[in-house]
From TrEMBL, chain A:
Its main location: membrane. It comes from Natrialba taiwanensis DSM 12281. This is Binding-protein-dependent transporters inner membrane component. It is found in: Cell membrane. One of its GO terms (biological process) is transmembrane transport. Pfam families: BPD_transp_1. PROSITE patterns: ABC_TM1. SUPFAM superfamilies: MetI-like.
Automatic annotation (TrEMBL), chain B:
The keyword Nucleotide-binding applies. Keywords: ATP-binding, Nucleotide-binding, Transport. PROSITE patterns: ABC_TRANSPORTER_1 (PS00211), ABC_TRANSPORTER_2 (PS50893). This is ABC transporter. It comes from Natrialba taiwanensis DSM 12281. The keyword Magnesium does not apply. Residues 29-257 form the ABC transporter domain. Residues 1-10 have a biased composition (Basic residues).
Amino acid sequence: MDVTRTVGLDRNDVIAAAKSIYSLVLLLLLWEFVAQYDMVHSYFLPPLSDVLATFYELTADGTMLEHAYLTFRRAMAGLLLACLLGIVVGVLAARNRIMGWFWDPIIEVGYPVPVIALVPVFMFWFGTGDLSKIMLVAVGCFWPVAINARNATREVDENLVWSARMMGTSDRRLLRRVVVPAAAPGIISGVQIALPIALIVTFVFEMVAGGGGLGHLEIQGVRSFESAQVYASLIAIMIVGFTLDRGLRYLRGRLLVWT
Amino acid sequence: MNRTQTHRQHPSNAESAHETMVDGHVTITELEKVYESGDERTTAIEDFSVTVPSGEFLGVVGPSGCGKSTLLYLVAGFLEQTTGTIAVDSDPIDGPGTDRGVVFQDYALFPWRTVMGNVTYGLEEKGVGKEKRQATAQRFIDMMDLDGFEDKYPKELSGGMKQRVALARTLAYDPKILLMDEPFGALDQPLRESLQDHLIDIWRELEKTVIFITHDVEEAVYLSERVLIMTRHPGTKKTTVNIELDRTQPREELVLSDEYTTTKNDVWQSLREETTPGGEH
Ligand SMILES: Nc1ncnc2c1ncn2[C@@H]1O[C@H](COP(=O)(O)OP(=O)(O)OP(=O)(O)O)[C@@H](O)[C@H]1O
Ligand SMILES: [Mg+2]
């Protein structure tokens, strides 16, 4: 990755950014216009200005932050757990025959399962609390992390491993010294793929099971016919997702300056 | 060509013949390597014996696919032979070891480490302290004309620079034996020549045993004290040719000298027999 592309901005980037915002602004204006002139019932689509006012109110009285924090905490805890397990399993499955024999079929089958379908199951087993949510997030994020870690590890250039061994790196230290650093770009890609999954699972679980969080706030808006709250929650989750994605990209750039 | 040289040399005979073999000699005895993948068996090396006395610069040439890389990786300990033995200083090798250092054709630098980080790697693994490590590494970085590039990552370097880093990295942890697999194959002529001269200087100064694989006859003759010619697939030792050149003269004169031209032609002819269909063997 070219560092200048993520940090500095050149002329083309600025123009591109302006253009993308331009179309977005146009859409938002259209939204305001359509809603203001009652072309759509305000229950379905309240004017943007109402949504922003509600967003502001909820933020000012701390409600929004409280819910955003709950969602953020669950998603991050689950993602972190998935990263710990997924990276270990993925790397070992690629480097160790027995681990590969055990995990390869599980990863192949587990990866495409739509994890949202497990929300009710987890409610049965583990209830509706934080632990249940975090665990399901971890399950959902585990697969992309593990599969990317495994594939990246498999693709590590054998010559790098040989180089290290000839310079005296023992088999035990090989993973930490060479395999994981060499596979790091692929491993981090897996984490980036898992991030939106973490948010989706958290959000849906909160909608279904409550217990606070932005998903809960949104569905509450539906149940109390507060459609402005529904859209305000949506904006909040978008901000959370966007921020986390940027944060991860920044981290990637810092960790992988050498790529 | 002296065909008697193709006969197997028993280590005991060979050893008594070279009194100088103290440290870093390689003895390969009746080596055979068969690759097995599924039902397919490919014999890459067979009936291969040679002794490389300590401090020798041995060039290895052979037709493409004859098993040169396989031979080198066997000596490095990366691959396991099917039969036969490879011994360094009379001890059979068991996997890779810091007594041997490989310089790969595609450099195989650690991309996440800077030039300095790459060159210090072997010393870190040896447990050398930070200051000593840096000082030793700096010596080899300077030797390779890489000073000023210590903090660059491999992706920021040209091919020739990468190859010099690879050489510095291997030299820094001080293996007795250098194993080089077409290290300059991907470089353009002037760069290749400058690195060749560099390598000769280093070999003289550091007194390493070198096994240098190349498909370039001129390179082999220019660098080596002895050139080993391999037969075509499956590879075995065809013959070895001693190179006796007056190394005191500059390159321009040396490559025009009669000895150089004659030896080069000898090696070239011998190799040609292996590359032309219906040739000898
Ligand atoms: N991993 C492998 N599995 C099966 N066969 C192999 C393997 N590696 C090499 N071979 C075969 O062994 C023979 C020798 O290969 P090797 O790479 O050692 O040749 P080489 O002399 O280095 O060739 P080149 O000059 O093209 O680099 C070839 O016939 C090749 O097809
Ligand atoms: Mg080769």
